[in-house]
From TrEMBL:
It comes from Paraliobacillus ryukyuensis. It is an enzyme of class 5 (isomerase). SUPFAM superfamilies: D-ribose-5-phosphate isomerase (RpiA), lid domain, NagB/RpiA/CoA transferase-like. GO terms for cellular component: cytosol. One of its GO terms (molecular function) is ribose-5-phosphate isomerase activity. InterPro entries: NagB/RpiA_transferase-like, Ribose5P_isomerase_typA_subgr, Ribose5P_isomerase_type_A. Coiled coil: none annotated. Pathway: Carbohydrate degradation; pentose phosphate pathway; D-ribose 5-phosphate from D-ribulose 5-phosphate (non-oxidative stage): step 1/1. This is Ribose-5-phosphate isomerase A. Its EC number is 5.3.1.6.
Amino acid sequence: MADLEMIKRKVGKEASQFVESGMTIGLGFGSTAYWLIQALGERVKNGEIFYGVPTSNQTAEWAKEVGIHLTDFAHVTTLDVAIDGADEVDENFQLIKGGGGALLREKIVASAAKEFIVIVDYTKIVQKLGAFPLPIEIIPFGYERTQKQIADLGLHPALRKEEEVYLTDNGNYILDCDGGVIENPSELSHTLHNIPGVVESGLFIDMAAKVIVGKEDSIEILDVKK
Ligand SMILES: O=C(CO)[C@H](O)[C@H](O)COP(=O)(O)O
């Protein structure tokens, strides 16, 4: 297994210690969250029970495969904990998420949790956000105009495409914005929310309660002071 993958695996396992049997967990998406789910799966084999609200269809598949019971907001309104990866974490613990396209559900789930734990390898830690293109989920209707309004902010939005235009699990589009360093993430988040057609941005402001960082030979657990 490549080094970085090994680090992600250790971080996922480390995060699982914050989960107790019987808890309802917001389950993130991405290659680090995958390892959290595998670690929980090992405990399911020993008789522990977990309830998970998945942030993507893929997460739901992973969780089902290891025996985590899936639930949703029809049955719970508050989650004990949510654990998810991130694309960037800055010095104030603000995040860019959504590289995997699940940012809307990830934000709903994280905001519903008593504690939101972020799990990353050391390559995700930055002084200021912005080297990773900021994903923004937008409604397909009128997307050209929404894109123009975001371009006017200097964010250089590009419509995410695979073979065809990428569709989120919610049937929306993603704009990946390569606007360079984000000096004021909180202000930008507000500005984006005021644009009609923007569903959600990948800026997660003041949401992380804990950040678990995997390094070459250690793991650091950072508690965010509120
Ligand atoms: O926001 C996300 C998906 O929408 C992921 O959490 C983020 O992309 C990090 O993924 P990985 O753990 O694979 O590096």
